Amino acid sequence: MKYYITKSFDEKKYILLDELKEFLPSINDHNLRKTIKMLGGEQDVYDTKLYRFNESLLAENKANDFNGEMEASITPEDLCLYERMHKSYYQLRDFGIEKLKSSDKINNIKTKFYKKNFASPRKCVIARRIIEELYLSAWNISQSFLQAI
After folding, report:
1. How many CB atoms neighbour CB 143 within 10 A?
2. Can you give the pLDDT at residue 57?
3. What is the pLDDT of residues 29-71, one digit of tens each?
4. pTM given for the model
5. Cα–Cα distance between 27 and 20 in angstroms, integer?
């Protein structure tokens, strides 16, 4: 989030709250606004969803002990991973897998299912497709992402 806001301020000198909410839908407005202001965003008088970059506000925030928080930014690689995990989460949900607690037991469940449904090739093909979808999902990389959602 910090990287995205900073990049927007560097390129355009402003950021739209709606654009940020679309990019990070799981983060509430309060946290988005707080981070924008901490990084030097000043709310526009006429458009409350527009934040313009204010260099003096950024300098003031750095002087007021926000510097530690501002330096703890996310890397572009972490951002890509987060985007991929988010996309995978919604793909799994659209596929019908709504609740997933851990990836550790997938092999055990797969073995039990195949033994139980050995006579039904159609069910085994469907199960293979579901397991493939689970393994290809980026959530498999980070259980902390699952807990955050």
Report:
1. 14
2. 83
3. 888 888 888 888 888 889 888 899 888 888 887 777 665 555 5
4. 0.45
5. 9
The encoded tokens of residue 69 equal: 């928080």
Whether 8 and 23 share a structural domain:
yes
CA 97 to chain centre: 18
- Structural domain containing residue 38: 2-73
CB atoms within 10 A of CB 132: 10
Instruction: Tally the domains of the chain.
Output: 2
Query: Which is nearest to 56 in space by CA: 76, 42, 35?
Result: 42
Tens of pLDDT along 120-144? 888 778 777 777 777 766 655 555 5
Quote the tokens at residue 144.
């902390």
- 85 and 64 in one domain? no
At 130, the amino acid letter reads I
Is there a single domain that holds both residue 85 and residue 46?
no
> 86 and 112: one domain?
yes
Size of the chain, expressed as the number of residues it contains: 149
